Fold:
Amino acid sequence: AQKVTQAQTEISVVEKEDVTLDCVYETRDTTYYLFWYKQPPSGELVFLIRRNSFDEQNEISGRYSWNFQKSTSSFNFTITASQVVDSAVYFCALSEAALNGGSQGNLIFGKGTKLSVKP
Amino acid sequence: DAGVTQSPTHLIKTRGQHVTLRCSPISGHKSVSWYQQVLGQGPQFIFQYYEKEERGRGNFPDRFSARQFPNYSSELNVNALLLGDSALYLCASSLQGTGNTIYFGEGSWLTVV
Structure:
């Protein structure tokens, strides 16, 4: 069965600190997709990144970076020089691939990590 | 371009009533999915529709149903509401078949009293 674990329930940092959010996943599929979403208090899930299981390259986007390691089934997310606007709940999610090669619509989410960045 | 839009934004219902939630996907997206998010938890998958056909169903009772219309918009219906149905209901859309990103709307906050 597929499962996503985000062991950190809440993290509090002071502005400009770096912070890493952990994500560990379980799947028997060889082809799958991993996602990170940000959920501010308004409720909307904001897409941050998608990674497929064949692409283990790490990615950097501005202050955000992601470390994907299949050997440890982890897909961790780091925010460098955190800002107050980064305060939100962050979700890691897993999706199996559809037979036609696309990502299916049924995402398996972790329970989320609430990040509070204090000025 | 408009993102995924959902209505209503907030609503309050009484136990036993019925509710209909609506979703319009991003233009060009043919796949729509519904998720339920209770307070303090991650979203849970309810349904996926593609080209007006159900493509996936999560572990929810038959009180939950959905459909997709020819213009790819979708409705989620919940009958005989229970207090435990109080949650944020999220709609997501995507292109199917090309390894796609799944985009979410702002959700409908349902409170059952």
Observations:
- Chain A touches chain B through 30 residues (CB under 8 Å).
- The radius of gyration of chain A is 14 Å.
